[in-house]
Amino acid sequence: MSTASRSLADDIRGRTDAQLVDLVLARPDLARPSPADLTSLAARAGTRASVQRAVEALDRGHLQVLEALVVAGDGASVTDLATLLGGADESVVAAHLTDLWTAALVWRASDGEHVVRTVPEVFGSSIAGLGAPLAELRPDLASRVPTAEELRATIAEAPDDARAMLEKMTWGPALGVLPTGTAGRSTARWLIERHLLLPVSVDRVALPREVGLVLREGRLHRAPELEPPALDARPASLVDAAAGGSASELLTQVDELAAMWGAEPPRVLRAGGVSVRDLRVTQQRLDVTPERTAFVVEVAYAAGLVADDGEIVPVWAPTAQIDDWPSIDAGERWATLALAWAGSTRAPHLVGRRSSGTGTANVLGPDVQWPAIRGVRRDVLRELAMLDPGQAADATSLRARLAWRRPSRTAAVLGDAVEAVLREAEWLGVTGRGALSEAGRALVDTAFPAVPDHPPIRGDRGGGAGGAITSNGQPQGEGLHSVAAAMAAHLPAPVDHVLVQADLTAVAPGPLVGSLGAFMRLAADVESRGGATVYRFTPESVRRALDAGWTSAEVIETVRRSSRTPVPQPLEYLVSDVARRHGQTRIGGAAAYIRSDDEAVLDTMLASRDLSALQLRRLAPTVLVSSADPRVLIDLLREHGFAPVHEGRDGTVVHAETPKRRAGTRRRGPAPVVSPVDLDTTRHLVESLRAAEATAADRRAEHDQRSGPSIPATDPVVTLALLRDAVAEHHGVWIGLSDQVGITTRHLIHPQRVEGGRVWAKDDAGRERTFSVHRITGATLEG
Amino acid sequence: MNDGPLIVQSDKTLLLEVDHPSAEAARRAIAPFAELERAPEHVHTYRITPLGLWNARAAGHDAEQVVDALMTHSRYAVPHALLVDVADTMDRYGRLTLEKEGLADSAEGTRLVLRTTDRPVLEEVLRHKKIRPLVGERIDELAVVVHPSERGTLKQELLKVGWPAEDLAGYVDGEAHPIGLQQDGWHLRPYQQQAVDGFWHGGSGVVVLPCGAGKTLVGAGAMAAAKATTLILVTNTVSARQWKDELIKRTTLTEDEIGEYSGARKEIRPVTIATYQVLTTRRKGAYTHLDLLDARDWGLVVYDEVHLLPAPIFRMTADLQARRRLGLTATLVREDGREADVFSLIGPKRFDAPWKDIEAQGYIAPADCVEVRVTLPEGQRLAYAVSEPEERYRLASCSDAKLPVVEKLAQRHTGEPTLVIGQYLDQLHEVAERLGAEVITGETTVRERQRLYDAFRAGDITTLVVSKVANFSIDLPEASVAIQISGTFGSRQEEAQRLGRVLRPKGDGRTAHFYTIVSRDTVDADFAAHRQRFLAEQGYAYRIVDADDL
Fold first, then answer.
1. How far is CA A174 from the centre of its chain?
2. What is the complex's ipTM, to 2 decimals?
3. Could you tell me which residues belong to the region Disordered (chain A) (predicted)?
4. Enclosing domain of residue B486
5. Between B524 and which of B277, B372, B467, B519 could a Cys-Cys bridge form, CB atoms 3.0 to 4.6 Å apart?
6. Distance from B110 to chain A by nearest Cα, in Å?
7. How much is the pLDDT for A296?
8. In this structure, are A321 and A467 located in the same domain?
């Protein structure tokens, strides 16, 4: 504990290293950029922006203690505060007070706790629904502020209607509109005459803080909540199995999404994102709810599996990463998705909501970006992690608890986000039946590691998903592996076979191994999803496989090889039937054709060596085609003694093949470096602060010993003028000189000449030195 | 991870691996609430529907049992959302009940009341446009009077809005009439007995059994259980005669006790067999034979071939809710998609068994299903290519390229009772001429039909060419070969019925043959594929052969 201080700066200078570490951890914004010394640390801790940030990060319990201290005034005792807080446990109040002191929202002097000057400013005039103090509302009455007893006596005399009016304003807001009726006016007049209400404008009155407190019977809050509300939990069974099931389903959905978007990538809207129509098409293919579709798409995007391909007409396409995806172990694939989700600043649940101005928010669009969601995910998952394994949190109590932790958030928005996070965690398999799964726990440890010995109040930033994820969503290192290993055990084992049946369906009794899965998706339509997948072979699906280059024999052979059951004969017929008709009509491209009724002429052309450059090909006895331009063809033929004429260009066939598109790896700006304010950096910072402080202390000591005037900061123009005078009058000058590291030293010099922004002067010892004028912080004449 | 035979899909289908050792246990566990959708060789598909869940509730199962059945037999984790949905859906059942309430001051003595335990539910349903007119005055906050005649319609509408009513009003016993089974030398087969029991305990409902599996006997068994006057509704007169013969043979009923109510005869006796056709006959916009339904105090109404139930019968059935109703069918596939109406008006499915299971027990003949593909000659292909779309099916299915194939098949099975079934009369006559066989069409008189059937049965003639009149309920005991030359587009239930023609067990345990002749690369083949999908889903793997390879 510090010795008596006279100010926040004094208090901070008096803290031990450990206390300083705690301070910086509690308010990480103080460390960026690093303050030069403790004095500037203290100055920064007192700025409004920093205090605002610190106050917003407080949970409701600490907030209430701080409010109580502001209302009670500096130096209030713990007992006073406990009374204000409705008879709260004094030890809890004292502990909270210490936390507030740690966070430098409160400083300690010999006469007790003082609130940092900017805190009341941040709160504004209304604290906990109380109005401004009487003295502030009516400075003229400042000398005659009635005591609580006097007020109580006055209120006791109040007629019923006056008392009712007061009661309405008791718990805030402390501002009211004057009633218009005569009866109401006279009631109000009674109150105003006794200064129980004070008029603030023509038709408005305020309830002074003193009166409010008396009405509240000395309590500041209707319901003091110093401790977080309990988190109700219920046991959940088969948590990991359920999580594994969801995880497996998600992986299938991502595969399907990639296959679908690889073939027919949706357009990137001008405002960014995917159009509602394209999303609906995707949803129909995935066969899930619109919310879940948005989630799958956003997760795939966060994991870098799909991206804007950046072409002139941009489309959303799978990235090159998807080509290696099937070969990655399922657990690792899941871990990649889960970590990407945890670190993502995008909130899929906002898709389809009305966003400000621009209509509904589109999936992958800019309106889905909501950085606060990451904090909500962290809070929710950490709360879940605090429960024993196999315990599912009750959603209502979880919401209440998070609302307590983040009193500054709008309850509805927070509640909505919490619900969305719980839902997404369930879809992802981070939770199973509402309880955190083993893999979920590993995810929390990796993505949101707790800071060791962290102080009870924490800023919003620390411990973000910085550890395991680099900025481009690529998880790395051990974190990924531990998460992957935790999930791998619960993922259904991949199967390498299907059961083919006479009704042309094939059932995969589990997730298929990569290559077989891709084949089945290509050659058959998915009819039902879940733990197993039911595929149906249809003429269309078989044609799709043939279009992709499979032969009928290969299709049948692959089915035969992967089927545990004999391949039904109708399936073979189906495949061969489709194959028989497949390719009956052929389409190709040619730039020009030559037709002639005289087949002999065409024979001559084909045989001519001079024309071999034209790469003539015979399609029919009377038709040749060439890939050369018609004009070239005509010229060359003419040269060689033929007499062709030019026919119109109709009949040119357009190549109808659609190649699979792949976007380049996502191009991003330089990766924003997330360097969390953790224990090590903080210790480092405090060490350097200490060192700087020591130097500053030395300097102060030196300063005290040294003679000479204090040097005011002067404008360079003034400095120059003064130096010139000194040269003229051979006067000595005290200057302040800042060196390369920014430390200002004092020198007594005798300037000789001033030229080109430099001063030639003799110092005390008579040595000639040169100084740059821009380094001189100030100057004053000697004596 | 569990190693159960069941995989629960997120789209609420259940996949049952039939070769798994505990498949049978799993099947029994899920049968009460899941509908068997497909039963091919290896993996059967069941579906969980609200209707199925409510039926399970009606039969006394609760959500916990359903969840337990899923969890016990599932190989992978059951999607949580599905479990929640099951519980929620089942919870909706029984919030509304239909009850009979005694009235002290009324002449009738009782009235029908729709009562709820949950007022908002009642308020919600009473605000529905279609439900409001069906109920009478409000008794109190939680109950409202229902006219007995609206009982069926109300139940149907409540089901549509998702608040099924539990019908506690019970059934009238009807006029008692002694009926017993004469089990001399034969017995109800185990599955028939199960079907009868399932129906009787449930009160009303539908029994699904493959053709040839003895549905008539299930009807007889139900009558013997009811011991009351019975109205049997059948598809046509021939079928009515067969019911009559079978009942005389199998039960204590005598010829005098059974009446036929058809276009030809109008007898009303303790057991009356009526055709759908006569019931739906209208004169001047009014149904002329509606009185039949009230002619006696029927204790049981049997609907044969319930998948063919015409729409007006649905409406009439709505008025019969106080009587026990038994629906019989081979397939609950209705091409018009009115399965839900069957369930809500006649009752839930009380018994269902995959065809293959019954075949395995030896009660229906094993069948060899073959699709024979003929290639159209060049000229016909061209004609087909340029024809109008609506003409195409007829052109393709009536191709004369099929005729030699029919001949070849008939030769192959010379001496075996063979049916040639088709859709188009010209084609049938042509085939009959080539085979030298008789034709039965809608124009053939009942007398002539009976003569031909008898001759066929006696073995005097071995080949019959029939139009679609023979689709239903003709009982040709020894038909062991069916050759289908054209069908009603893609009708699946027709295919099932036609296969049923040859599935009756053969005296010597022979395999039945079912041929379908289709024209390659035409809509005929597409429709055939659609029809056969049904058979494949029933577990009949069919083969495809080229006509040239025969």
1. 37
2. 0.80
3. 656-676, 693-712
4. 365-549
5. B519
6. 48
7. 94
8. yes
- Are A269 and A158 within one domain? no
Q: What are phi and psi of A431, to 5 degrees?
A: -120, 155
Confidence of residue B167 (pLDDT cuts 50, 70, 90): confident
**In angstroms, what separates the C-alpha of B534 from chain A's closest C-alpha?**
8
Say if residue B452's pLDDT is above 80: yes
* Residue that is last in its domain, among A215, A245, A264: A215
pLDDT for res A517: 86
Q: Which of B1, B8, B41 sits opposite A530 (nearest CB)?
A: B8
Q: Would you give the end-to-end CA distance of chain B in angstroms?
A: 50
Residues lower than pLDDT 50 in chain A: 1-3, 452-455, 459-475, 652-657
Largest interatomic CA distance in chain B: 83
Same domain, residue pair A170 and A199: yes
In degrees rounded to 5, what are phi and psi of residue A18? -60, -40
Q: Which pair of structure tokens corresponds to residue B490? A: 């893609």
Domain, as residue range, for A503? 499-581
pLDDT digits (tens, 9 = 90+) for B258-276: 999 888 888 889 999 998 8
Cα gap A726→B141, rounded to integer Å: 105
Same domain flag for B493 and B522: yes
Does A448 or B475 have the greater pLDDT score? A448
Is the same domain home to B81 and B50? Answer: yes
A433 and A332, same structural domain? yes
User: Which range is least confidently modeled, A219-233, A460-474, B451-465, B476-490?
Assistant: A460-474
State phi, psi for A162 to the nearest 5 degrees: -65, -40
Judge if B329 and B252 occupy the same domain: yes
Distance from C-alpha of B196 to C-alpha of B487, rounded to nearest angstrom = 33
Q: B81 and B114 share a domain?
A: no
- Name the 3-class secondary structure at B263: coil
Contact A241/B at CB under 8 A: yes
The total number of structural domains in chain B stands at 4
How close is the nearest chain A Cα to the Cα of B390, in Å?
22
Residues A316 and A358 in one domain: yes
> What is the number of helices (H) and of strands (E) in chain B?
21, 25
Q: How many domains does chain A have?
A: 5
pTM for this model (two decimals) = 0.68
* Cα B165 from chain centre: 24
A227 in a domain, yes or no?
A: no
What is the three-class DSSP state of B125?
helix
Residue B447 domain-assigned?
A: yes
* pLDDT of B232 strictly over 90: yes
**Distance separating alpha carbons of residues A472 and A304, to the nearest angstrom:** 7
Interface test with B, best of A238, A501, A541 (most B CBs within 10 A): A501
What number of residues does chain B have?
550
The confidence score (pLDDT) of residue A1 equals: 41
pLDDT > 90: what percent of chain B? 11
The 3 state secondary structure assigned to A402-417 is: HHHHCCCCCHHHHHHH
**pLDDT for the residue A705:** 63
Residues contacting B60, CB < 8 A, separation 6+: none
Answer yes or no: do A242 and B77 touch at CB < 8 A.
yes
The pLDDT of residue A650 is 62
pLDDT, chain B, mean: 84
Q: Are A469 and A673 in contact (CB under 8 A)?
A: no
First-last CA distance in chain A = 45
- Average pLDDT, integer, range B141-167: 84
A494 inside 8 A of chain B by CB: no
B414, with CB counted inside 10 A (0-12, 13-18, 19+), is: exposed
User: CATH number, domain at B341?
Assistant: 3.40.50.300
A599 shares its domain with A742 = no
Task: Determine the Cα–Cα distance for residues B279 and B292; give it in Å rounded to an integer.
Answer: 8
Distances (CA, A) of A305 to A337, A483, A661, A690: 9, 19, 13, 48
Q: Do A532 and B541 touch (CB under 8 A)?
A: no
